[in-house]
Amino acid sequence: MTRHSPYTLHNRSSECRGRRGEVATQHGIVQTPVFMPVGTQASVKAVTPENLKEMGAEIILGNTYHLFIRPGHQLIESFGGLHGFMHWDRAILTDSGGFQIFSLKDLATITEEGAAFRSHLDGSKLFLSPEDAVGVQEALGSDIMMCLDTCIPFPADRKQTVEATALTGRWAQRCRDAHRRRQQLLFGITQGGMYPELRRESAESLIDIGFDGYAIGGLSVGEPKEQMHDITEATVAHLPQDYPVYLMGVGTPEDLVEGVWRGVDMFDCVMPTRNARNGTLFTSTGKVVIKNSRYRTDHIPPDERCDCYTCRNYSRAYLRHLFVSREILAYHLNTIHNLHYYLNLMKDIREAIEKDRYGAFRDDFYGRLEGE
Amino acid sequence: MTRHSPYTLHNRSSECRGRRGEVATQHGIVQTPVFMPVGTQASVKAVTPENLKEMGAEIILGNTYHLFIRPGHQLIESFGGLHGFMHWDRAILTDSGGFQIFSLKDLATITEEGAAFRSHLDGSKLFLSPEDAVGVQEALGSDIMMCLDTCIPFPADRKQTVEATALTGRWAQRCRDAHRRRQQLLFGITQGGMYPELRRESAESLIDIGFDGYAIGGLSVGEPKEQMHDITEATVAHLPQDYPVYLMGVGTPEDLVEGVWRGVDMFDCVMPTRNARNGTLFTSTGKVVIKNSRYRTDHIPPDERCDCYTCRNYSRAYLRHLFVSREILAYHLNTIHNLHYYLNLMKDIREAIEKDRYGAFRDDFYGRLEGE
User: Which domains, ranges and CATH numbers included, belong to chain A?
Assistant: First the structure.
């Protein structure tokens, strides 16, 4: 069955693969390239949905693995899905749980049938097949669902990579077959480790099945940055240009700039939210480790170029005081700033591509970081 | 020197000592009776100033002891005081630090000169005289400052109580003499333990000195509720009716209702904020311990009679999920609800006194609690 792509292209950079477009979902249009804040357990940590809207978030990410374990997808479905449960009326992408189960290591066993694992909460035995992964995500009501995939460690030999990639392909077909609620989009995930030709094979097999979008999985798992960028580039080259491309679990601000350069439309990462809680703030001139005593009497905001709620109203000295005092407000204000920084970076990237000056934008971006 | 009282009476109940009025400060008029959310370390835990304004807070409390130790009053003064430092432009009352130093027990030594103590953070030796307490509070820029007082443990014998109460009186005179920035109000604190005649003597000695308001200190320290109410009543009887009366560190919703009945205008307590972080929500029908499994699938908000942000948008099931998952958003949403409950209770109390139906209001209040 031919499916209509949710992706619409606006502009293409003349300097690189970077492109400006949008993805249509049941809960609104998402402007791309986009960064998706991570809301693992039905909450983007330390902020409200209103905070996310104020900073311009159009889509957030939820984790199937976590929600399956607690509070359970049936309960969430009884609230009209994740949107109703967590009070978020814009788009949601859920990952399939594959990466989290892979992270459990000794607690998980992967077979042809699916993934058997033990809950990290209470050790109870659980099982997730590709069909289950789709069923759970349909119950969660996410706008974009991800196929269950197997992740490949780094480093991995060719044999291991071939097998895991082939299994991911067979699971992708089963996910596609199990997909009933077609208003919810389903994305395939390419694997193939650090082998460009396996990445190509993986992409081609997914295209044969046919999805609403294509993700690059299994990167940012410990490989050198350059290799991550090379594999991204090699994979994007084999993905259809009229569908959205999603680089999973990436990354630093620099990674986003480089990913867009290579044709990526969508990103997600815990970095802005997690670093906020660890007291590291992203700014236009580099990272600010707020607990540092150099900020004790500093009257300026975290980033003088930033217009987020935190930077409009608070000094580095106050944020340092909150952080060293372990005040909960520290996590809230730091998270607002970091997510705003990421979302605003993507907004600037979109504008630069619209004006076809992405090369100059990228130079300026690195120039400011080096100026610090 | 005769001082103009900051208090204006609006209405007086015909059934009790309850009264409706206002206290004028440099940062706005405070409608009374009022509950003041506690912002110990220059932050009302887990909420922003905007959240506090949305729930109608007109005054919050800061702690001299904590701010003196960290980040230091000189730093805060360089930000134009606590208001500028923490981004709050409404009224602030600071306590003197007496109660916190008293709570340090073995780490503190009280002499005629003042309180010698060790920081609970790093054990460093510190000293706070009555003059220091006023100087620090002047630097903090609080709208209402409190005299340094000595707290009396419960139980305490008469001799101990007489001595501590007399010392509090001598310190009150020294605080009054040290007071320079007269735009910042200074309140005296009555002590006298559980001895009504000592409470009277304490009140009279403070009135002789002359303050902008009078507080009842040393209650809610372990005595039976009835005794707390009796001593409140006995103290209020000896305080001037044209000045604000502040019952320090009190209390439960029931305590507020009873305090107002006996003539109290101002209250503060960590109970709504602390209980929020422990997962206990105050509602019109009693407490809701949100982690309880009975709320696992509960679709209703914490309090169906409440119109706070949390109750308008979230279910008990979602709040339970956040709390058991230790999501930071749980503390934020619970705190918004509990503070809204306290502030809304005070609003209802003010309206009831305006309509001279405080007795009926009080009956309804207890009736709803018993209905649960």
Answer: 7-269 (3.20.20.105), 276-371 (no CATH)
